[in-house]
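In this section we turn from sequence analysis to structure. A common task in structural bioinformatics is to predict how a protein folds when a small molecule is present, because the ligand can shape the pocket around it. The inputs are simple: the amino acid sequence and a SMILES string for the ligand, here pyridoxal-5'-phosphate. Study the lines below before reading on.
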Amino acid sequence: MPQLSQRISTLNGDGSDGWGVFYRARELKAQGHDIIELTIGEHDIGTDPSILAAMDRAAHAGHTGYAMVPGTDDLRREIAQRLSQRTGTPTTADNILVTPGGQSALFAAHMAVLEPGDSALYIDPFYATYPGTIRAASGIPVSLATRARDAFLPDADMLRKTALQHGAKSLLINTPNNPTGMIYPRDTLDEIAKVCRDQDMWLMSDEVYDTQIWEGAHISPRSLPDMAERTLVIGSMSKSHAMTGSRIGWIAAPEQVIERLIDLATNTTYGVPGYIQDAALFALTAGPELEAQVAAPFRRRRDAALQVLNNQTAVQVIPSRGAMYLMIDIRATGLSGEAFAYRLLEEHRIAVMPGESFGSAAAGHLRIALTTDDDLLLDALDRLCRFAARLIAEKTL
Ligand SMILES: Cc1ncc(COP(=O)(O)O)c(C=O)c1O
């Protein structure tokens, strides 16, 4: 076989993909064991029947051929109006490219701004694909560590130093955050924006969880002074409308960036199926109720989970303000997140993601996805806390 490209051979770096506990849980399940899975960032409901009906109507109306590569005019206009309304930043259809999901938007965004070999910053802990996405765009991923004691918010001085040291071309942030559940407050975003302006960097803002806000407010950094010209916003219908399998999202960016991104889409994805775009348009124009309905179980479970977690001292909870996750600090047990997660799975049949799966900054933590039935979730959390308490007691014997 001729040689594969260096780029694709090294896409995932040399470490593991971090999904070991998840794969082991699936293996145990296949062997017939009852496993409570708190691992995956996907709803426990399907896409709403009204959205599926819109998809069906569009397909039967003949929207099954090649669709407009940048997105249909109506959908681009609707997304633009949504962003204008929600962020206060004037946005037109020319600022929008419809993409096959947020992941493809993340890749396209980095392709748009990186020369091969450019350094691209991202914040640790991070959504698992970030470094690979940057490598896929021929960039060099550079992580910026945050600390649990700062609620995993980036430190502006460290950001400036790292950006300078690497001559970074871009910074990727994610708010509301996966895996921490944090929402970046205004002052953090102001500081980030200042560094981006001072260092002439692009800002990639992954806002795929922007409809899952439990406390405080989501601010898009594109709305900050002089930031619209250097910010590429990544949006998606996956989390907001339980449309993960439909693969539909967008990039909002300056018009000149979108023009070039349309060239990229023409030569890569060739757009998103028309019937999916029509279903997305239906979903976005259906009003806020649909979104609220999709978000409601996560809010309810997060509140109930916090009650359990705030009633014990073995584990500490990071104050989750948004997204479908809770981050738990288990360092008092003396185990790594990974060792704890494997033991919890083998001894208690509960699967959670080790913090280490999301970068070294989250070592000694666990990510709990709020994507399982309320009673199972609360039972699992109760047992997790008792397991942690037992480990702490054994340690001090
Ligand atoms: C932070 C973050 N960004 C982007 C994505 C990609 O989502 P999608 O490609 O389904 O829109 C995910 C999915 O879990 C995510 O958690």
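DSSP finds 13 helices and twelve strands in the chain. As an exercise, try to locate the residues that line the pyridoxal-5'-phosphate site and compare them with your own expectations.
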